């Protein structure tokens, strides 16, 4: 794969009051010696395409309601300033032709496809977001998930699990929120962390000198990747699976929780840092919600009566998914109350809901 | 303009090891009764376009280095689930044809153009960002700038000046940062705010019972819009241009600063909330930098020897622009020192640099 052969898109759209003069724009493409094709649209406005040199391709549409869209596809090694000039010329000509009767002009940043490093990681609420990612630091497939650590200029390294941005080195705000936003005292306490393979929570809780932290993370590959590449998050805490006041069990948390229930173990704090609440709001995905409820149910059983259970929820915009999650809380074998907090986690580029749950 | 006639784009790209079987994909478009045009590309891969019903248009490119891109244009009132099915069918067929020899498949969220409400506001460092904006609350043109207040589901109302996201109701972090991040005591102090028309800084400083705040904002239209629509930010502070310990001068700050210099006025805190450091890193835009330096120079002259001057800088990623700004600080008539802090302002979707400046 030739890394030079990437693809760019420049997108331009205009809102005009009159579309009649637009064919005059064609002369600009003709000057560029582009080959024109006019397409029959069956009454859906004017549509022409132009093929030029070096793989350039332009789609010009004049929609019946006054919207003009111009898309330009080109390769990364193309002459970008020449192309900017072409777009500028189009903009100038349109303005002149339409005598200022343009409501709005919008030129979007180029959308790059086929690049070695993928910069587009949509938010949980489905918005198109371009990250400032400039490198893939680590990539492995485990039996459970695809694990990537990507480098962002502003956020540092970012852990991406199955395409979801999990945590960046900039995201102490996430760790603080899922620990109760500085309002808890972990000194001398029994703490259980479910998941948390990036080591962020473990590293922060350890500082408060708890009696014992047990962290149950299913994937050694996540731990290994983060140990090497997320050190601003985990420090040296993942270098050993055991320390003065912590132990990391590389296991599925469900059988561990079941064993603890049987043994009558109790924890003062349980921090669930497993995968997010399902994004889907379709409850026919029964198994996901059932899995979530199973974890919750088992956890609440090993939670001290005055203990607290912390977990991340979802994007604040996904109100349906949040409501469904809260409905699950009403279905636990032991009745619970909860509160929630909206937190800005820098690398998420969307506000995130965190839950605190306790026994009634 | 018909609000139903909006435009969507669905973007799909594949990385494949072999492109030979791709023409087999064509049958899917033929089944959809789309009219095909194959374009001559002079050795730049395979390029076909398809015009379908309801204004649908597909661009299929098979690039010589194994990248396949499929772009689908359609109108918002089109049958979106039918189109999703088409894209799913293409994905399935490609996977089958290529026997799993696909390195990566990426389907991006639709890019919407021509909508009444524009959701795309690129970051200062030029990245494509889709906001969750669902309404235009306020729009006016002043002699100085275009003023918009847009509603975001998660951030509340957002003030956008000349297309730049200025401040959202979620952005107390901005106000706290430009006030010195909670490390200053404004009680009994003389405070000067340059700009700040959204009232956020004024509302926060007033709480600390300073001796007097003078705010100099050039645009009454900004004040008026924010007074109505940014009340989570400004509270009722903008309802009156004068209060117990503050006054708002609706004036250009340069003559005001010059007058203060002449009068020998001194301020304990000066907060510059004027427009951002120019994004451009081309110092040939002399006038912008000179304007910036003029403001700085005048401000430092009215700054108490033990006083502090706070200002926002720029995106942390725009290191060249930041360096140029810091060079200006070395050129002031009075020598100064400075420190900087990187802050996450929720609605910016990029980390932002704030400066503290003081007399040496």
From TrEMBL, chains A, B:
InterPro entries found in the cross-reference section: PABS, PABS_CS, SAM-dependent_MTases_sf, Spermidine_synt_N, Spermidine_synt_N_sf, Spermine_synthase_animal, SpmSyn_N
Domain PABS as annotated: residue spans: 119-359
Domain of life: Eukaryota
Top enzyme class: transferase
Pathways per UniProt: Amine and polyamine biosynthesis; spermine biosynthesis; spermine from spermidine: step 1/1
Catalytic activity: S-adenosyl 3-(methylsulfanyl)propylamine + spermidine = spermine + S-methyl-5'-thioadenosine + H(+)
Active site: 273 (proton acceptor)
One term of GO molecular function: spermine synthase activity
Secretion signal, residue range per the UniProt entry: 1-21
Coiled coil: none
EC number: 2.5.1.22
UniProt entry keywords in alphabetical sequence: Acetylation, Phosphoprotein, Polyamine biosynthesis, Signal, Transferase
Keyword Phosphoprotein appears in the UniProt entry: yes
GO terms for biological process, alphabetical: spermine biosynthetic process
Similarity-based family: Belongs to the spermidine/spermine synthase family.
UniProt-listed PANTHER family: SPERMINE SYNTHASE
Record text on subunit structure and interactions: Homodimer. Dimerization is mediated through the N-terminal domain and seems to be required for activity as deletion of the N-terminal domain causes complete loss of activity.
Record protein name field: Spermine synthase
Organism, as annotated: Anabas testudineus
């Amino acid at each position: 794969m030739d890394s030079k052969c990437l693809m760019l898109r420049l997108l331009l759209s205009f809102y005009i009051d009159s579309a009649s003069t637009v064919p005059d724009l064609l002369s600009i493409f003709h000057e560029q010696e582009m080959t024109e094709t006019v397409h029959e649209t069956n009454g859906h406005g004017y549509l022409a395409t132009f093929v030029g040199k070096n793989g350039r391709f332009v789609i010009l549409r004049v929609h019946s309601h006054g919207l003009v869209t111009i898309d330009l596809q080109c390769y990364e090694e193309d002459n970008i300033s020449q192309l900017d000039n072409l777009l500028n010329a189009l903009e100038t000509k349109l303005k002149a032709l339409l005598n200022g009767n343009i409501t709005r002009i919008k030129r979007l940043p180029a959308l790059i496809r086929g690049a070695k490093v993928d910069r587009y990681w949509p938010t949980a609420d489905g918005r198109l977001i371009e990250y400032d990612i400039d490198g893939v630091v680590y990539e492995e497939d485990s039996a459970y998930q695809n694990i990537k650590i990507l480098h962002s200029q502003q956020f540092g390294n970012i852990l991406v699990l199955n395409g979801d941005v999990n945590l960046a080195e900039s995201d102490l705000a996430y760790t603080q929120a899922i620990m109760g936003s500085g309002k808890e005292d972990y000194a001398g306490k029994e703490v259980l962390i479910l998941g948390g393979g990036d080591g962020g929570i473990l590293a922060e809780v350890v500082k408060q000198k708890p009696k014992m932290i047990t962290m149950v993370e299913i994937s050694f590959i996540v731990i290994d990747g983060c140990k090497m590449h997320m050190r601003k998050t985990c420090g040296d805490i993942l270098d050993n699976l055991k320390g003065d006041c912590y132990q990391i069990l590389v296991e599925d948390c469900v059988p561990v929780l079941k064993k603890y229930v049987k043994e009558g173990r109790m924890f003062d704090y349980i921090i669930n840092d497993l995968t997010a609440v399902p994004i889907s709001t379709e409850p026919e995905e029964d198994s996901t919600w059932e899995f979530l409820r199973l974890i919750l149910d088992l956890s609440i059983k090993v939670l001290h009566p005055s203990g607290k259970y912390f977990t991340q929820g979802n994007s604040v915009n996904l109100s349906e998914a949040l409501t469904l999650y809260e409905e699950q809380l009403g279905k636990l074998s032991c009745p619970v109350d909860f509160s929630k907090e909206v937190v800005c986690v820098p690398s998420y580029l969307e506000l995130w809901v965190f839950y605190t749950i306790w026994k009634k």
